[in-house]
Structure formats: C-alpha cells, structure tokens
Amino acid sequence: MELQQIIDKSHRIVFFGGAGVSTESGIPDFRSVDGLYNQKYDYPPEQILSHTFFMRHTKAFYDFYRDKMLCLTAKPNKAHYKLAEMERAGILSSVITQNIDGLHTAAGSKKVLELHGSVHRNYCMDCGKFYTAEDILNSTGIPKCTCGGIIKPDVVLYEEGLDDKTVTEAVREISQCDTLIIAGTSLTVYPAAGMVRYFQGDNLVLINRDKTSMDGSCDLVIHDKVGETLDKIVIK
C-alpha cells in the first residue's frame, strides 16, 4: 500500500482535514447531495451562518444551529482514532481541521488546530463567561448568560476572520512537515484551503471521496472514505 510506505518513511506528518472526516461519524457536510446547502430553510445556510444574520436574527440562527450544527451524539470514527494513535507514536505533529465538532480531541488527539472554532466553546458577548455545547443545546430561544448577555458560539461565521494565532501555527506546521495528508475537503473554502501552498515537504497526499482541483498536484491521491483508508495503516 503506497500510503503505508509514505507514512513508514515520514518523520513529521501533518493532517489537514475537512467535513469528509466527520461524515463517517454521521455529521452532514455542506456541499454533498444531502448536505446542508441542499436542504430547504427560510434562508440559505450560508446566510444563516453569517455574522450579520447572527446579530440581526439571533433566535432564527439558534433554531438552525441547535437543529443542524450541534451533533453532540456523534462519536469519533476510525480516522479520528488512527490520527490520535499516530500522534502518540510520535510521527504525527498536528491535526489541522476545518471542522467544529471537537471529535479529534474526543478521540485523544492533543495538538488540534481548529481553524473554524468549536461548538464546545461558547462565550457571553458581554462578560466572557464560558458555556458548554450542552448548555446551548438545552437552552431555548436566544441563550443568555447569567449576566443577561447573549451567548455566542466560538465558531467562525461567514464575514468573520480566522483566529490569527491559530492560522499562524497552522502555516508553521504545514511549512515544517515532510508529509501533508489532506483529507475530506474539497479545498474550496478559503482562507483555509490556501494554507496548503505553504507545504514544502516530500509527500503531498490527498484522500477524498470526490475529485478535487488539486488531484493533479499531489504525490498520491486516494478516492475513498477517510476512515476506511486510514484504518488500514499499521503504526510501527
């Protein structure tokens, strides 16, 4: 297996993952036939998940958010567990993810750079008090802090910028690794997708169910499920 051979000779691997990593845990992606962008709501998901919509229509945002974004019963899958195993073995430097579900951390990964934030972190916009995802799920209407302020998820909405510190660390990780595994992403969401250009290592691997614009630029392309592919890897 070519992927096994690449991993065997790698010393510093970075994993860059998107929605396709979590679909095997039952979390819907955005752009597939049955994804969120193809479901019918009063507003398109892109609009609901924007900063402007959150500020102007907070209750409608939370109605959608609780219904479609808080998948708290989802469990890590084979991909999450294999990556955590690779980190423990000392060959995986970090996981960079566009996902907000927290499943990499739940599987045991320690260095996880969450480019788009996490549903598990929520803060009062007035006093900064922390709230869990369960707090949000179990609330009704607009979740309010004990101080009376509105609680906002620590997720990057449309119109919002990525966290500078997280981006800087992700670029550093990508630029210093010898193998970059890109998985479960169409590489169409920027600025996250643009980070790939900082890779200067030996092996660029792409694992994705569908073809992407980067297929021709990679050393190895695997069109299959991420979890099923990584589960075959033997850590030596």
Automatic annotation (TrEMBL):
PROSITE patterns: SIRTUIN. It comes from the Bacteria. One of its GO terms (molecular function) is histone deacetylase activity, NAD-dependent. GO terms for cellular component: cytoplasm. It is an enzyme of class 2 (transferase). It catalyses: N(6)-acetyl-L-lysyl-[protein] + NAD(+) + H2O = 2''-O-acetyl-ADP-D-ribose + nicotinamide + L-lysyl-[protein]. Pfam families: SIR2. Nicotinamide binds at F30, I100, D101. NCBIfam families: PRK00481.1-1, PRK00481.1-3. NAD-dependent protein deacetylase which modulates the activities of several enzymes which are inactive in their acetylated form. This is NAD-dependent protein deacetylase.
